[in-house]
């Protein structure tokens, strides 16, 4: 009787210790007595500073459009800038942090904000080609926010036509994390002028909203690892675990009787 009790107890331990719970699946949970209200206002991140491989859309406008036509690609339109055409007509930041701007030549933009690049282009145009009376106006935008997902969310490269995107929005756009993905330790591989760094964020904790990595940046790589129970082959629910254990017990019993009859 005692052996039977121990056996049943062990089965229940395996069943419920390996099942997924709300703590594994729910985003931004309130823990340790900290509520969303306690976090206060979630401030917007500091202005993004352009990195290598970023793509920029730069347009020059004036009262007389013919004066600035040489600076804008032929047939370029506002909508065209937000499509695949920008790959050919946009300005990619090279490995040295430069872009090749029509007539003005190479301009270094590495580490500059979008607003600073706008001021820099306007200043160079007024210095070299135009007078104040031309009333030129420059618009500079990132060509969407491109990021990569890999792991328990599916692999892919995504682009959102927004200046700012938080990681929850980015994951939702990529199809969300699977039930076997580890939401407690998301890896973000981020690009810096000196190279790449890996950062971690726990998306099951509401405090993640205060993390410096809550907002993604262009060219981020988001890696979602599998839960350990997936690596061990455990099921996601009690019924799946019961089916696995039943199959294992059946196999052991069959093996026992077969070897006993030999």
TrEMBL record:
The keyword Electron transport does not apply. Keywords: Signal. It comes from the Bacteria. GO terms for molecular function: polysaccharide transmembrane transporter activity. Coiled coil: none annotated. Residues 44-140 form the Polysaccharide export protein N-terminal domain. This is Polysaccharide biosynthesis/export family protein. The lineage of its organism: Bacteria, Pseudomonadati, Bacteroidota, Flavobacteriia, Flavobacteriales.
């Amino acid at each position: 009787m005692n052996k039977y009790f121990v056996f049943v107890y062990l089965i229940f331990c395996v069943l419920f210790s390996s099942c997924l719970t709300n703590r594994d699946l729910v985003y931004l949970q309130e823990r340790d007595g900290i509520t969303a209200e306690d976090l206060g206002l979630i401030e917007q991140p500091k202005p993004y500073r352009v990195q290598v491989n970023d793509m920029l859309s730069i347009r020059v406008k004036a009262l007389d459009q013919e004066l600035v036509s040489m600076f804008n690609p032929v047939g370029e339109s506002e909508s065209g800038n937000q499509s695949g055409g920008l790959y050919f007509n946009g300005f990619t930041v090279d490995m040295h942090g430069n872009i090749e701007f029509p007539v003005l030549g190479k301009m270094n933009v590495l580490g500059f904000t979008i607003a600073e690049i706008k001021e820099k282009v306007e200043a160079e145009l007024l210095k070299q080609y135009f007078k104040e009376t031309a009333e030129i106006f420059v618009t500079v935008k990132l060509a969407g926010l491109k990021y990569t997902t890999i792991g328990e969310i599916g692999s892919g490269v995504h682009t959102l036509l927004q200046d700012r995107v938080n990681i929850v929005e980015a994951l939702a756009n990529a199809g969300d994390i699977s039930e076997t993905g580890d939401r407690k330790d998301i890896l973000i591989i981020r690009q810096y002028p000196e190279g790449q760094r890996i950062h971690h964020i726990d998306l099951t904790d509401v405090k993640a909203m205060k993390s410096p990595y809550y907002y993604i940046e262009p060219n981020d790589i988001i890696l979602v690892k599998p839960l350990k129970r997936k690596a061990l082959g455990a099921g996601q629910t009690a019924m799946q675990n019961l089916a696995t254990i039943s199959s294992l017990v059946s196999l052991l019993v069959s093996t026992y009787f077969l070897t006993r009859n030999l």
